[in-house]
Amino acid sequence: MRSAPRTAARRTTLPFYHQSFHNLQELRHNASLSNKVFVQRDYTEGTVCKFQTKFPSELDSRIERTLFEDTVKTLNNYYAEAEKIGGQSYLEGCLACATAYLIFLCMETRYEKVLKKISHYIQEQNEKIYAPRGLLITDPIERGMRVIEISIYEDRGSSGSSSGSSSTTCSSGR
Amino acid sequence: MKSREYKQIEPRALPASAPPAPAAGKEQAQGGRARRKWEVFPGNNRFYCDGRVMVARETGALPVTLGLVLVTSGCFFIFDCPFLVQHLTGCIPVIGGVLFAFVLASLLRTSFTDPGILPRATPEEAADIEKQIDNPGSSSSSSYRPPPRTKEVVINQQVVKLKYCFTCKIFRPPRTSHCSLCDNCVERFDHHCPWVGNCVGKRNYRFFYCFIVSLSFLTAFIFGCVSAHLALRSKDGKGLIFAVQESPASAVELVICFFSVWSILGLSGFHTYLVASNRTTNEDIKGSWSGKSGAEETGNPYSYNNVFKNCCAVLCGPMPPSLIDRRGFLPTEDAPLSTAVEIVEMPASKNDVNMVTTGRHGFHQFSRVRFNQEEKVLLRFIQRPRLPRARVDVANRRQVPPEPSSSGQGCAGRASWPFLSG
Question: Would the ipTM clear 0.95, i.e. be above it?
Answer without folding.
Answer: no
